[in-house]
Design brief:
single chain; 10 strands; binds S-adenosylmethionine; binds 6-(5-methyl-2-OXO-imidazolidin-4-yl)-hexanoic acid; binds iron/sulfur cluster
Length: 343
């Protein structure tokens, strides 16, 4: 039986030497078209330059404010534009969030990610979220929030509260974007990412595949991410969770091999980043997930729920990790005291 012991990662996407930010579209598209074995070998080789290939970082998600969102993201069950039967709820109380975080830590998560169905946070809501960040961090968990668009002042306030990561996805290529979202622009998203980066918060930014986009769009998303001034420290690749009632509820299935290719290309372009095998695991076979890990995915969500949809049960994941010899990565603050721990 495999012994599961926590390890830590020391890789940082921002400062690592030899990272490229000048990828050309032809190069990225050529990677997508490589023979599968060559692509996976290249991705695994890139991955091993920065990480122990058996270590996987585990985060747990909580929807702190669900549904009723004014945005029209075509994939999202939380948009008020769609009737998905989802019950909207107000921002959770700080104490209730901390209870959930404690449970997630006991279940093995090293990072706690809190998501709100907002276009952008109001200042009084941000006050509450800041209390949540402080509380979760004091438990020895890394913190992540995703609250929609942020201005520079809001980003700085979150940084001052000790926030480790901000998740804000580009979702798809600049060219395909307007097919999916009309209520905010691609540039709005890039502006939020710049505000987060300038505040000194780690960036978590990726997208969704399986929305009817083609190979060029998957290449366009990864090209945009890889040519940012700094690579996001965390790159979530979500497989669309098809929710009935949304614009994309009846979208055709993506070829699983094309999903694995997307993970592999993300790793080759941004080798020091943690690539997260994000939404969609509930509908993936163990073998497909194993291929994703082989392609360089080294981060996942654990716990039975994502924000509003299902994620694999803990016992199912435990069996998979044991079969694959996967070790969970601990939060850096758990393994060794940080230099800034007294701040
Ligand atoms: N409202 C905030 C925002 O959009 O920035 C934060 C929450 S939002 C639900 C976070 C991300 O979840 C989205 O950017 C999208 O990439 C992902 N997401 C939402 N619904 C999804 C679905 N059905 N399948 C896969 N990913 C999804
Ligand atoms: C990300 O890229 N994926 C997560 C997290 N960031 C916030 C969200 C997935 C949501 C899947 C649909 C749902 O559960 O509502
Ligand atoms: Fe709102 Fe975020 Fe869903 Fe878009 S993805 S509808 S912004 S909750």
């Amino acid at each position: 039986m495999t012994e599961i012991t926590a390890t830590t990662s020391t890789a940082s996407a921002a400062g690592a030497p030899g990272l490229r930010h000048d990828w050309r579209r032809e190069e990225v598209e050529a990677l997508f078209r490589k023979p599968f074995a060559d692509l996976i070998f290249e991705a695994q080789t890139a991955h091993r330059r920065f990480f122990d290939a058996n270590d996987v970082q585990m985060s747990t998600l909580l929807s702190i404010k669900t549904g009723g969102c004014p945005e029209d993201c075509g994939y999202c069950p939380q948009s008020s534009k769609f009737d998905t039967g989802l019950k909207a709820s107000k921002l959770m109380a700080v104490g209730a969030v901390l209870e959930e975080a404690k449970r997630a830590k006991e279940a093995g998560a090293s990072r706690y990610c809190m998501g709100a169905a907002w276009r952008s946070p109001k200042d009084h809501d941000l006050d509450q979220v800041i209390e949540m960040v402080r509380g979760v961090k004091s438990m020895g968990l890394e913190t992540c929030v995703t609250l929609g668009m942020l201005n520079a002042v809001q980003a700085q306030r979150l940084k001052d509260a000790g926030l480790d990561y901000y998740n804000h996805n580009l979702d798809t290529s600049p060219e395909f974007y307007s097919e999916i979202i009309t209520t905010r622009t691609y540039q709005d998203r890039l502006d939020t990412l710049a505000n987060v980066r300038d505040a000194g918060i780690n960036v978590c930014c990726g997208g969704i595949v399986g929305m009817g986009e083609d190979l060029d769009d998957r290449a366009g998303l990864l090209l945009t991410l890889a040519n940012l001034p700094e690579h996001p420290e965390s790159v979530p690749i979500n497989l669309l969770v098809k929710v009935e009632g949304t614009q994309l509820g009846n979208e055709a299935d993506l070829d699983p091999i094309d999903f694995v290719r997307t993970i592999a290309v993300a790793k080759i372009l941004m080798p020091a980043s943690m690539v997260r095998l994000s939404a969609g695991r509930e509908h993936m076979s163990d073998e497909m997930q194993a291929l994703c890990f082989l392609a360089g995915a080294n981060s996942i969500f654990i716990g039975p729920k994502l924000l509003t949809t299902e994620n694999p049960a803990q016992e199912k994941d435990r069996r998979l990790f044991e079969r694959l010899g996967i070790r969970p990565m601990a939060a850096p603050c758990e393994a060794a005291p940080r230099a800034d721990a007294a701040e």
